[in-house]
Design brief:
By secondary structure, the chain is of the alpha/beta class. The strands form two sheets. Strands 1-4-5-6-7-8-9 form a seven-stranded parallel β-sheet. Strands 2-3 form a two-stranded antiparallel sheet. The site of coproporphyrinogen III has 23 residues, from strand 3.
């Protein structure tokens, strides 16, 4: 790289990180890359730190949150950090009796199925998650120029855990409530939207550079049901952050047919799973940046396959105003972390401009 280009790169860095610029569809020196679930079980240093500490407990300790969030940044050289926390953290803080069980996921002691149950899901007092703001504060000092992504679960995905009482394949109880008692459903989703917005505002006020709203399981719905039962509530969350001045990313799995509707929820960046190529996604969400698409399972294939997929995704990502390289869902626990590091290097090298 010549001196002029290096100078340009420095100015770009000052004007905003590569990650934030790509979210906004602005010119970048290379395609930024981070991985959903980059902080977690694929890293031996994470497993060591978490030994004997329950998941929710680790989320309440700013020292642990800081260290776990930093681990993938140091190891992989990703272009963004994501706060170590969980989508269930604000519900725990709002008074819901729940646990996050290793190998299973969130388990709710008393599922929400009636109006009386809904009373147990209290509005979130920001003070009840002050440890999250504290962790963000510590992280900003450690991270320096690397942007920190805050996040929350979207109302539908949170509702699915609350109504089912735990992880679910078919979401039968959730859908039964949604169709059978729309009044309770909308009251529940409105409450969850309020909690989510409060939780995200705590992170924004503490200084995160972007937020991601995870609606992981919303792909279980038809577009018509999504529009009627979910969209207004996700919209309430994202529009509540419209004045925050930071990019908003909205992601779900199996959302190939929901992307235009999800884009209407108001995010700046649309997250895409491994099923929908980024150029096809970009055509469905004009004006939005895109993120995602590398199948997390492809990281288990020979390197030639990984390389071919990374190059394809970088090519197809050019169809959108901005492209953030990521997986189509979270890093799987058995992933070899050295492959993730190689992907970061390859993305940077191939996309260098
Ligand atoms: O991405 C990151 O690195 C930041 C940390 C993060 C976690 N959870 C940590 C975690 C993020 C962004 C989440 C979000 C989350 N949590 C989602 C949305 C993203 C997605 O994957 O779809 C969902 C659906 C949850 C609920 C949840 N929490 C599940 C399904 C699990 C996994 C259960 C298991 O053990 O397989 C959790 C637990 C959890 N959250 C772990 C981590 C690192 C594993 C807990 C452990 O180490 O014991």
């Amino acid at each position: 790289m010549n001196t002029a280009a290096t100078g340009g790169l420095n100015r770009l860095t000052l004007a905003g990180s590569t990650f934030v610029r790509a979210c906004r569809g602005q010119a970048v020196p290379h395609t930024p890359v981070w991985f959903m679930r980059q902080a977690g079980r694929s890293l031996p240093e994470y497993r060591e730190l978490r030994a004997g500490v329950r998941m929710l407990e680790s989320c309440r300790r700013p020292d642990l949150v800081t260290e776990i969030t930093m681990q993938p940044v140091r190891r992989h050289g990703v272009d963004a950090a994501i706060l170590f926390s969980d989508i269930m953290v604000p519900l725990d803080a709002a008074g819901v009796d729940l646990d996050i069980v290793a190998g299973t996921g969130p388990v709710v002691a008393e599922p929400v199925r009636t109006m009386a149950d809904l009373d147990r899901v209290r509005p979130l007092d920001p003070g009840a998650v002050s440890y999250v703001g504290d962790a963000v504060g510590l992280l900003l000092r450690e991270l320096k120029a690397t942007p920190l992504i805050g996040f929350a679960g979207a109302p539908f995905t949170l509702a699915s855990y609350l109504v089912e009482g735990g992880p679910s394949r078919n979401h039968t109880k959730t859908k039964a409530l949604m169709h059978g008692d729309p009044e309770l459903w909308h009251a529940l989703l409105a409450r969850l939207a309020e909690i989510t917005l409060t939780f995200l505002k705590v992170q924004v006020e503490a200084g995160v550079a972007a937020v991601q709203l995870f609606d992981s399981w919303v792909g279980a719905l038809s577009e018509a049901d999504y529009r009627r039962y979910v969209l207004p509530h996700s919209q309430a969350v994202l529009s509540g952050l419209a004045d925050a001045g930071i990019p908003r990313i909205h992601f779900g799995v199996g959302t190939g047919l929901l992307l235009p509707a999800m884009a209407e929820a108001g995010a700046d960046v649309v997250g895409v799973d491994w099923r929908t190529p980024l150029d096809a996604a970009a055509a469905q969400v004009p004006g939005k940046s895109v993120q995602g698409n590398l199948d997390p399972a492809v990281l288990f294939a020979p390197w030639e396959v990984v390389e071919r997929e990374v190059r394809r995704i970088l090519d197809e990502g050019r169809a959108a105003p901005g492209h953030v390289f990521n997986l189509g869902h979270g890093v799987l626990p058995e992933t070899d972390p050295t492959v993730l590091t190689r992907v970061v290097e390859l993305v940077h090298e191939v996309s260098k401009r």
